[in-house]
Amino acid sequence: MKTAISEERVHILDSQSNVWSVISEIALSDNQEDAFYVCDVGDIVRKHKTWKAKLPRVEPYYAVKCNHSLAVLEVLSTLGTGFDCASKGEIEKVLSLDVRPDRIIFALPTKPASHIRHAASVGVSRMTFDNETELHKLKKLYPNAEMVIRIRSDATDAQFILGRKFGCDPETEAPELLRLAKSLGINVIGVSFHVGSGCREPEAFQRAISSSRYIFDYATSLGYNFHVLDIGGGYPGEHGTSIDKIADVINSSLDKYFPDPSVEIIAEPGTFYVCSAYTLACNIHSIRNVTETDAETGNTKTRKMYYINDGVFGSFNCIISCDNHVVVPIPLKDYTGSKYHPSSIWGPTCDCVDQVVENILLPEMMVGDWLVFKDMGAYTLSIASSFNSFPIPKVHIVADKNVW
């Protein structure tokens, strides 16, 4: 394994400093106008300790798509996690850290042929499937692959229902696919599922694990010896959230349906590890005052439109991709005692959909002031674009001295 992030790239926090003080120091430095992130490595380390304590049987395979920052991958590889990759590019990035190929699962059920050939060339043998076409491709391109069948088992309450795109029906489609795999001589080693990103129904894991047991037993009747169960992602990672309830359901379900310790249990956490580690600071570069008249009373009021230097085509892409996603701006400056006004926050591009916050009460701020957004580590930088050639924010890495 290659050396983790070098100390020159990390700001070591002492007893007098924290993430907020670092943000203030950067924001108030000369000529600082661009939006920027602060990534707290210690937060990632603490999350890993929590995972190992709450889910001792489950090996985390970090979902690279969530945040593919080299710093994040280096920290997690040092901690010993595996990696869930969805493309040859992600596989290459992880392998560049000297992660062993057997610590990677290519967890995309529908893969381009060139990506399958690449996985074969570098020895990444574990991958998922949920359809006949994929089995025939694998038979031709990578007959020695170790396949994991992905079943559909959606939570009733989740931010993203991934079953709309991936996962075969465990009762009707899965048995047919396993019979086909057997006839083709393909080595299937286990079952995977994903209850949905941002799962808010812990019991969904119980249903999915129960369905997986059924598939394991059916596979045995075909002569397979399944030994891998991938319980996917969906674990919350924002400040103030907990995986305790989900962990309780998973642990009790594993005890009931998979008591055999020889079965390898893995998962694909992403948001859990990185969401709260990243804090984003944005600069107000323009302000527009809009006078509105109440149709019933005739009273007028002023609504403020604040324009910041990051938006929905950049770090706030999550607002477009998830209808219910809400970000909360925190003024960096202390506005205690100030009068608050109805406000909205807009990104920097020329597109009218580039609205970060539609309606919020904020103090009267000035051009050059800063707004801070917590919980910005998941599905932000990894899907940000440079539309209108606005830059993607730089990341400043910090770590507590003891953690480092």
TrEMBL record:
Its cofactor is pyridoxal 5'-phosphate. Gene3D superfamilies: Alanine racemase, Lyase, Ornithine Decarboxylase, Chain A, domain 1. Residues 42-274 form the Orn/DAP/Arg decarboxylase 2 N-terminal domain. One of its GO terms (biological process) is putrescine biosynthetic process from arginine, via ornithine. Keywords: Lyase, Polyamine biosynthesis, Pyridoxal phosphate. The modification N6-(pyridoxal phosphate)lysine is found at K65. It is an enzyme of class 4 (lyase). Pfam families: Orn_Arg_deC_N, Orn_DAP_Arg_deC. GO terms for cellular component: cytoplasm. The active site is at C350 (proton donor). Transmembrane segments: none annotated. GO terms for molecular function: ornithine decarboxylase activity. Its EC number is 4.1.1.17. It catalyses: L-ornithine + H(+) = putrescine + CO2. Pathway: Amine and polyamine biosynthesis; putrescine biosynthesis via L-ornithine pathway; putrescine from L-ornithine: step 1/1. Residues 36-377 form the Orn/DAP/Arg decarboxylase 2 C-terminal domain. PANTHER family: ARGININE/DIAMINOPIMELATE/ORNITHINE DECARBOXYLASE (PTHR11482), ORNITHINE DECARBOXYLASE 1-RELATED (PTHR11482:SF6). Catalyzes the first and rate-limiting step of polyamine biosynthesis that converts ornithine into putrescine, which is the precursor for the polyamines, spermidine and spermine. Polyamines are essential for cell proliferation and are implicated in cellular processes, ranging from DNA replication to apoptosis. Homodimer. Only the dimer is catalytically active, as the active sites are constructed of residues from both monomers. Belongs to the Orn/Lys/Arg decarboxylase class-II family. This is ornithine decarboxylase. It comes from Exocentrus adspersus. The lineage of its organism: Eukaryota, Metazoa, Ecdysozoa, Arthropoda, Hexapoda.
